[in-house]
Amino acid sequence: xxxxxxxxxxxxILVLFGVSFLLYIIIRLMPGDYVANITAGNMNVTAEMEQRxxxxxxxxxGLLEGYISWLGDAVRLDFGISFIYQKPVTExxxxxxxxxxxxxxxxxxxxxxxxxxxxxxxxxxxYSKMDYSIVAxxxxxxxxxxxxxxxxxxxxxxxxxxxxxxxxxVNARAGFEGFARIMDIGHHLVLPVTVFVITGVGGLLxxxxxxxxxxxxADYVRTARAKGLPERKVIGKHAFRNxxxxxxxxxxxxxxxxxxxxxxxxxIFALEGLGQIAINAVNNGDIPYLMGFNMFLAVLTLLGxxxxxxxxxxxxxxxxxx
Amino acid sequence: xxxxxxxxxxxxxxxxxxxxxxxKEYEKVNKRRNIPESEYLTQMQDPKxxxxxxxxxxxxxxxxGTVKAVDGVSFAIPMGKTIGVVGESGCxxxxxxxxxxxxxxxxxxxxxxxxxxxxxxSKKRAVDIAKLPRKEMEKIRGNEIAMIFQEPMTTxxxxxxxxxxxxxxxxxxxxxxxxxxxxxxxxxxLKLVGIARAxxxxxxxxxxxxxxxxxxxxxxxxxxCNPQLIIADEPTTALDVTIQAQILDILRDLxxxxxxxxMLITHDLGVVAEMxxxxxxxYAGRIVEQGTAKEIYHQPLHPYTVGLMKxxxxxxxxxxxxxxxxxxxxxxxxxPKSCYFKNRCDKCMEKxxxxxPGLISVSPTHKVSCYLYDKGLVSDKxxxxxxx
Lengths: 322, 388
Prior knowledge:
- The structure holds two protein chains of two kinds.
- Chain A is an all-alpha fold.
- Helices cover 76% and strands 0% of the residues of chain A.
- Chain A is globular.
- Chain A contains 13 helices and no strands.
- Chain B is an alpha/beta fold.
- Helix content of chain B is 38%, strand content 21%.
- In chain B, helix 9 (211-223) packs parallel to helix 10 (241-258).
- Classes of the chains: A mainly alpha, B alpha/beta.
- The interface between A and B is medium-sized, with 21 and 29 residues.
């Protein structure tokens, strides 16, 4: 097992080099660089000044040269200074990460708490009214555009009923401290989390249902019944353990999603998370930030697949690595 | 053409409505709590019998119509004897056994009528399994009636160890037994079915064993609670011939050791000849012939049984091609009123176009359902009385 993990990590490092190279090329090839952006419309800027600024920002180098110099710093974990924020990239990420992560993690927990039991229930009562309504609601969730759903929620709960805040993270006027502040943040997160959960729960739910259906028809479930086990145990132990196998692998793949941020939802609720920052960076051609952030996601993606492969071996004894 | 399609759609719709009505009815019956004992207590016809199937009917309400997989099957399993149930695929052998375990896949599969009387010695009473509440049935399943399935590769749960799965069965029916004793019993059972490294196998997962080993494990699991009846649903079909013989030997030895009855379901007449005391031949959901193994083998009466016997390979016989019964099993939906075997039968007569023939007793144990053995109207009446 340890040998396997070490090998996987070594392979991952190679993959990261490839990823970073491709990323750099794509980002550099974006039309309009940072200098063009900030000087646009300013008549007083001469071509000479622009050229000097490009040198300052390191945009005068060719693709390969630029990549090598970025790589030289990156291997020392120095990702440079964000053009927009004028702060080290790692600092920027650190600053906006907590809100994004909190939002995604809370949503993920709720999604799993809803999707797995409902998926199992739908599978057990296949083709019943219960099954049809669960699947219909799940599909509705998948199909709902998040901006539209968020707008409806805001209209109803923030404007209409006035029970939940419209946007933002904290109530700036109240100036809560300690526990009250946490409760206030929670209060603000209700609507965004609801949007996340409703639009995200469908996929996992349908996946659980399909897997459960397959497992319920398996011979070993019949064996479990033939032993005389009560239905509760047949489902909860014999069927569930087998349904869990594909779900666990899916969860590993969800890890990078926890950090990548949700551009639209964060925007609508005016939450300053990584999604917002990323879209800003793309618009302005903030190369160091984009490289740093995307590499961060790449590392998480590779870690996520590694984690799901390891979890796979944990839940399924047929899978062994050597 | 268009009208045809419409009629078809209408027909399918009607079937669906009918099925939903039936599902609801069965669910209502199944959901009841506190069912009074008087509803499922019954009397055995012969106290020496362990199981008596009486006019059992098991139907599947499918989207294309009701499949009468088992339609009026009656036979008995005497204590300590082996009954072989023979027939080709789809004749209702497995459905009969699953009905006995109450393991028909719902909501489509349901016991539609008839009794399955079970002589529950442990409680000194006889119960009708078809009406037994689920809780009571769970106490019987795996404990008093155990089942060995046909596919050893898939009948064991891949994520639990062998030991865990057998322990579970023992612990379920003996909740007070201490853990160490349960383990001992499991290992003892594994040794009993001829597994050499029982301790090692105890810790193994199913995928680490071969098919023959897995089938032994399944047998060990089935026998772990000393059942009164072992239902073996084609236990050797998926195994190669050398292992088949070993598995059958194990079954036969163990049956004597724990003094159980066996209901052996197979399409292999050789297996039946070796194992069974009585044989039941089924065709399209009904019994066409039943009798002692000797009677069926030396004096098969029903043209279907004769055909089965002929289509079996025999050593030292010089033939180019094995005999096969012409034609196919009839469509199980909307079966004709007349004999189901009529179209494939080489002895078909005028009379066969009439109603389905009743069971005719040829000897006290040997019964056949065929007009060939119906001796005129006078003896017909007698035969019917005997048949009952």
